[in-house]
Amino acid sequence: MIWQLDFLFLILVLICALAAINIKDLLSAVIILGAFSFFMCLLWAEMGAVDVAFTEAAVATSVCTILFVGAIIKTTRRSKD
Amino acid sequence: MLDFIIGKFNFWFYVILMAVGLFAMLAKRNLVKKLIGMNIFQTAIILFYVSIGVKKGNVHVPIIVGGHGHEGELIQAADYLNPLPHVLMLTAIVVSIATTGVALAIIIMIYRRYNTLNEDEIIEIRQKQLEAEV
Question: ipTM of this model?
């Protein structure tokens, strides 16, 4: 575990989380959530949890984003907050 | 005190991330935004649990060194990361995907019935419907 790398990834994860909840367009928010998951995956690979990292990359990042995008296509993109 | 804050900086980040998720779940009015907040909250908790298994110093990932054809060698458990939180959180990730899928299905049903995703508007329409019934 390299603490500089850990710190960098944690800051990127935090920026992605704040951007995902503050952006008005729902599709953009979901894509930023996908970026959040990818940074989380890097963080786990860096912590030595390799199995968790590739499960996150294979399942959480792709399947979760696809489900969200499908639901947004079925409903609406606009959001007031 | 400063050593306590800086030395465990990653735990502070997990607490902030968890607070961001909880804020989105409580304060945002859009249902998809609430779901995004729930995802962030779950990931922060999983991150906390995985970070418990990390050891400092010269340790391997949990794959036995020389595991194939070197049965006679002695294995020290202290030389490896703790794999138990990893395995438990693997299950938690898959469960979180299933929860998200069910929640999105419910959101699509709500949109078909009320034609909006804003929580305030849904409550307003629901109250009007209840008054019309009485």
Answer: 0.93
